[in-house]
Specification:
300 residues; alpha/beta; TIM Barrel; eleven-stranded parallel beta sheet; two-stranded antiparallel sheet; 9 helices; 13 strands; globular
Length: 300
């Protein structure tokens, strides 16, 4: 089992963002497999849609949010081995050229260790702030993936669709990973799961320990991805998975380790990223928790 951890990006850990180098190096030295960021451009005071597309509230832990691209760049320069991923960037909020440039830079700094994880998001206010149509986010994601592929693999590069246009331009700077970094997608809806099976390199599921550990639901989602892959003429076994494990406040490390083992045994998950923003307020607490999780998984 590969176990990675979220960088200090949200909640009170965000105020210790200056310790990102220390955090990244200690996780790598302890045997962590990967380091991760999420994405929150803003947390609306009066959200029309709540966290994860449910209700009308957003956890206050998401109010402070450090920049994901800067954190990935810092972690890339501070480490030598760990993978560097996003679980997830709300990709349709960004222009293709901007997103490609930022991720190419991270991949080059890291020597090809980037896992580019994208999702469509659930916040209308984030799309409003970017001047974009929230209802078109799925269509924009489809075109964004095509545009990124063009920018990452061609020179000169261009893309023209209904949602996005990238003029013909010089694009000699390419990622270290060829032909491009692997693209992972988060998904809940039938359409989004189908998109993973049809075109993604990886799937980014989610659980929350202990309040939302839906093993049967994850198995069903994995099966939907596999079915879409087969219909598209792809081998489902080539689609990787990285499970995000959020930890509720007050949860013991033993509960987290047990959930990770369960996901490995019943869902076939072999790589997890653990986010401690809800359970551990400081970087010191997060590092201590990370060490104990790694020890517990190894002993299992």
């Amino acid at each position: 089992m590969k176990v990675g951890f979220a960088l200090p990006q949200f909640n009170k850990q965000a105020f210790e963002v200056a310790r990102t180098v220390e955090f990244a190096r200690e996780i790598e030295a302890a045997g962590g497999a990967s380091l991760w960021v999420g994405d929150r451009n803003l947390a609306a005071v009066h959200p029309r849609i709540g966290y994860g597309g449910r209700g009308n509230t957003i956890p206050p832990e998401l109010n402070p949010a450090a920049d994901p691209f800067v954190l990935l760049g810092v972690a890339a320069s501070a480490t030598e081995r760990v993978l560097l991923g996003s679980h997830v960037l709300v990709a349709p909020l960004y222009t293709p050229v901007q997103l490609a440039r930022s991720l190419t830079t991270v991949d080059l700094i890291s020597g090809g260790r980037l896992l580019a994880g994208f999702g469509v998001g659930w916040s209308p206010e984030e799309y409003e702030a970017a001047g974009l149509d929230f209802t078109a986010r799925g269509a924009r994601m489809d075109e964004l993936l095509d545009a990124l592929d063009a920018i990452w693999t061609r020179d000169p590069a261009e893309y023209r669709g209904e949602q996005l246009t990238v003029p013909l331009h010089h694009a000699p700077l390419k990622p270290a990973r060829r032909p491009r970094p692997p693209v992972y997608l988060g998904a809940h809806s039938e359409r989004a799961l189908r998109r993973i099976g049809e075109r993604a390199d990886g799937w980014l599921p989610l659980c929350v320990v202990p309040s939302f550990v839906d093993v049967d639901g994850l198995v069903a989602q994995r099966d939907a991805v596999a079915e879409a892959a087969r219909k598209a003429g792809r081998d489902p076994e080539t689609i990787d998975s990285v499970l995000r494990v959020n930890i509720d406040a007050g949860t013991s490390t033993e509960e987290v380790v047990s959930a990770i083992r369960t996901m490995g045994e019943r869902v076939g998950i072999e790589h997890v990223m653990v986010d401690t923003m809800y359970s551990d307020e400081s970087v010191d607490q997060a590092l201590d928790r990370a060490g104990r999780i790694l020890d517990g998984v190894r002993q299992g």
